[in-house]
Amino acid sequence: MSVYEKDLMPAVSREVGDLDSSNYRYTSDVLFTAINAGVEEFNLQTPTQQYSVIGTGANAYFSPDPDLTDKRLIVLFAALALINADIAKAARSAISHSNPAGSTNLTQIPVALTRQAERIENRIATAFELKTKGLVDAECSGSELRGAPTEQAEGLGTTNLEETV
After folding, report:
1. Using only C-alpha atoms, what is the Rg of the chain?
2. Cα–chain-centroid distance for residue 93?
3. Which helix (H) or strand (E) element contains residue 54?
4. Domain total in the chain
5. Residue 76 domain boundaries
């Protein structure tokens, strides 16, 4: 069953806190762009598995179908792309303005967004660790590694050393 990009959009929205259905912050086009950026970043970070997006718009799907862990990583990379774009926008307007009516301080917005980006990066690192552990566990399930320590590996000769006095 094909995994469509539109299926990941709610997860990306949740990841960045865009939950108000009456006033979404990110449009579908922005989410599609972020998911595509997430796929590109995933492909850069994971040379063993590469995904491409086939089709456009609502009919765009991944080839091959990503498993649950890879979908989660693509969502996290997409969320990170959105947060990094917000950091760049907030940094351009990070001002502190004072006047007789009060003051406005927008300098902490990029700092807060950077902390959120760091949390997402930590979650990406954790997901990669779990993915790697799963691959190692699957690789180590061979009988040559599970046997008793006295068994010899396939293809190797046995050398017995005897010492006499």
Report:
1. 24
2. 28
3. strand 52-54
4. 1
5. 5-94+104-140
